[in-house]
């Protein structure tokens, strides 16, 4: 809400500095978003009279002016303008002056003769026709009225004002008005609030002879008031009103239109004026629009309406979109002679919906959406009529049509004073509370230990104790709130197990040189294609946003890989030569599409890395370390992710369930993402890991008392036989004495037949009660050899 | 014979003095003191010595032997310490060469700051809970005293997923879920990801993070709210930080306040960081609205509470002086490496 300081001073004295006013308003709930000093745009420009004009001896187009600028001696200024004449009053920028267009004027010489400033055009002062008549004409601005010479042009142009931009919270629609702000200013400064008291004279007649008003839908229009003004004397508004409107960013038009705008800004109640002769059948009908009913609004746009939208219609057709914009056919024109003033209350949700649906937002709709006071319509209407009378803009006909159902009555709240202090935690004297509430026009009296508060209709936001507490506190001052430690028993804050486990997971990955990344939860729908997911891949069943910022942020992700690849590609393109990343986030898996209930949010982890020293097995090492940390026994089997290298990928299987996959990125997918380097990614869901850790209870095992005996085996087998299979055979055949098995070499080459490979293991045997001898181990080894050869593994040594 | 002993002593001691290595020393020992050495040879030559001189001669030779032995031992000690010194010298490293590091990774800066927040509030007895990111209209708005078409909804641009389903715009949704599940006393924080339809720029992101706080108990006052937030501010911004409440509006708290802290860059006197007013806005807070309590089945006549919402991204960018919020989601290694935690 932009508030002109000059305008504000019409209702309240401001005996403090601008800074103090802003600080006090901010601390009482009206944050100052900005302050604009209109006078700062120009200085040292004065109204000056041309005493004498001469041609410049050395230049055809220049004229030498002797200017009376209000000083003892005339000042010589040379101008190139041709529209000046002796006796003209013009704006003169004196030596060392600043103009709003950024110019800095200093004295100098023009063709050898001194010039001590510059005569200004309207354009140089950044003026429009509405700011000053003639401002847009070519040449020097000739001032129409007679100002004393030397008058500061800021006074001539009414620029000695400050605009304060208050941020109005949505619970205070009453402060979307000059009077609302002035009331608050009066309270915080302890000054008297002087609201205008409407009074006007009428000329007789009867409104019912001119118009009939029917409200069909009181649910959307709780109140509709009409008054008639005849014999309009349409003219420009007086300067004070123009200044007010301009300060609020509105263009003055004529006294009638300006009065509706002025009253809206002053009271917060939008007003509308109809040209009475354009109201067909002398009837106003407030009704829901018919389905597909057309209307052309003031801005010349055509709209098609639906039956949720409220219109103001005459006997023939809708003429206004209620509370949003008037119609083209009934606006006030230069030759309008009689008008109907409308001041109404339209339901805020209805105005909001209609304005959104039609993509329209006006000063009027903004106020109705925030909410206007049903009872305040009367005041606004009377204020408009008072201005008609004051400006002698027309004759006010007797009678008012005021359509409404039951009007809201004063709400009375009874609150114990201690209940307020109990919520705030500070002792505020009851008399102080009563005084503050009364100053806010919440009429309050004490009855025993109770406060009886009558809430004015414009304070719809005040519903109970908490609201009254806030009103008292914001005026009493929040600096009275002192910090206290909370009472209550000492309790330990706990994290949910999942968060504890996630912390463990992250620590494990960080210890392996991995950095955490953070990416958006929504991705492009095309990510599924980039990953080459099959048409029936479940990950294509994704939740989509109804109103995304764009296609690239349109789909809730069902996998973390594409985000990871995007980040890896960003790093690769920026010449980061080696990276190790992880992300812990959620997958959004719909239970049904289209979405009818919240999707499952599945905690998941992605890993991604590239660099000279990275390969499939460095990634697998990270995965294995993680499994070991979470005490999970995982198996690794070949998998078939379309975005991974067909021969370099594996699924992680825990208790028979695949919890994730990892491997080298398929070269085609790498190319799609712009990755010119072998890249490795993993994705897994974390629930199984967390569950395993939750069920793990570590118990001490005695350290071995006898040394282990090591035996090495070198085997020849089919190259397709996975080493994990061989290890399984060895373990199963090794029995109790075989403590551990470790692969230490895999070889294919010159000495090995094609299609075969050599695999070497170290086997460690240990006895519980004694150091094992050959006699203990040999039978076990024999069993192992037997089982191996049954499975096609031949002993090499 | 006596002269022979004397010349051997002179020769041996002379030779010993010349020795430079332990190997030469060993050769010396063999040559003079070995079984076939020269001193032994002298003893063997005693037969040629007249009998009456033999005891004196024997004594002389034994004296020479023990004299050479102790000289040899001394020389050995000297030589081996020299040799050790030489070896150590030869092993001198350029200690300024880089170490062989096992590089560690690190948390994302948002989560470094979050870990600090969790630590602070957990130590004050707040449980750390989670809530879903896809919320219903009920939990995100209606139950928070924001009915449909309420102008307060204009404060937030919401991403919708379906009828009454949306991406939560505020972690406040977790307040309701918590109050439905727990009975007072309640003391929780809920960190999480939130979404608003803001176009991306240096200070806006459609995805960002909040930490919601909620306390409900008997006799909870606004002074308690200030007590908790002051503790938080002292931990995060330093022990001299002042906390200021400024009236504001949120539909689900009443009274509602914006919370400012004194600017840590200038100490509150006004500077560029705080745009000259000495205060920096850090979060919104207030006393839980009676309608919200009642809606969750908690009697507002018996219980009161407060809630607050901290913007994690803003806290992170101000702590590290990160000029552009987009850097947080770009994940450039050179950016991430700057934060340790």
Strand portion of chain A, in percent?
A: 25-35%
**Strand content of the residues of chain B, in percent?**
15-25%
**Pattern of helices and strands of chain B:** HHHHHEEHEEHEEHEEEHEHHH
The oligomeric status of these chains comes to heterodimer
Biggest sheet overview of chain B: 7 strands, mixed
Largest interface: A-B, 92 and 87 residues
Low-confidence stretches of chain A are none
From the N-terminal CA to the C-terminal CA of chain B, the straight-line distance is 86 Å
Structural class of chain B: alpha+beta
Q: What is the global morphology of chain B?
A: rod-shaped
Distance between the termini of chain A: 92 Å
Please tell me the overall pLDDT of chain A: 93
Query: In which range does the helix fraction of chain B lie?
Result: 40-55%
- The overall average pLDDT of chain B, rounded, is 90
> Radius of gyration of chain A from the CA trace?
42 Å
- Indicate the percent of residues in helices of chain A: 25-40%
- From the spread of the alpha carbons, the general shape of chain A counts as elongated
- Strand order of the main beta sheet of chain A, please? 27-30-31-35-34-33-32
Low-confidence stretches of chain B: none
Structural description of this entry:
The complex is a heterodimer of chains A (797) and B (341). Chain A has 20 helices and 39 strands. In chain A, the strands form ten sheets. Chain A has a seven-stranded mixed β-sheet, with helices on both faces. In chain A, strands 3, 4, 5, 6, 7 and 10 form a six-stranded antiparallel β-sheet that branches. In chain A, 40% of the residues are buried. The mean pLDDT of chain A is 93. Chain A is α+β, with helices and mostly antiparallel strands and 797 residues long. The longest helix of chain A is centred in the C-terminal third of the chain and has 17 residues, at 774-790. In chain A, helix 10 crosses helix 12, helix 11 packs across helix 12 and helix 13 crosses helix 18 (687-694). Chain B is rod-shaped and about 135 Å long. Chain B is built from twelve helices and ten strands. The longest helix of chain B has 37 residues, at 54-90. Helix content of chain B is 41%, strand content 20%. In chain B, the strands form two sheets. Chain B has a seven-stranded mixed β-sheet with strand order 1-5-6-10-9-8-7, with helices on both faces. Chains A and B meet through helix 7, helix 10, helix 12, helix 13 and strand 27 of A and helix 5, strand 1, strand 2, strand 3 and strand 5 of B.
